[in-house]
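Per your request, structure below.
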């Protein structure tokens, strides 16, 4: 997780892209496949307007921010609440 002052967002985005590129390279060199890449920007509601909603460049691909992500079965949203996870867990499962 990364954080910065609103005035340093561009610097943080450049560093973050480099770190992600490093992880992507390591993953590729170890023959691991990243089939889905998502990211969410986390901030308390009073700070959300400071965060740009721009894409992140990863290995020449633009990755779009999403409202929530799932990691190890847990859903995390941008406000870092359990609301999204609870909604997914409690939602009725449709059977096809």
């Amino acid at each position: 997780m990364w954080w910065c002052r609103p005035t340093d967002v561009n610097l943080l985005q450049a560093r973050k892209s480099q770190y992600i590129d490093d992880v992507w390279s390591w993953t590729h060199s170890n023959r691991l496949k990243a089939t889905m890449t998502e990211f969410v920007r986390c901030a308390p509601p009073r700070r959300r307007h400071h965060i740009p909603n721009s894409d992140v460049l990863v290995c020449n691909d633009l990755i779009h921010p999403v409202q929530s992500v799932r990691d190890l079965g847990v859903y995390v949203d941008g406000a870092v609440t359990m609301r999204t996870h609870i909604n997914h867990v409690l939602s009725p499962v449709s059977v096809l």
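Residues 6-90 form one domain.

Regards,
D.
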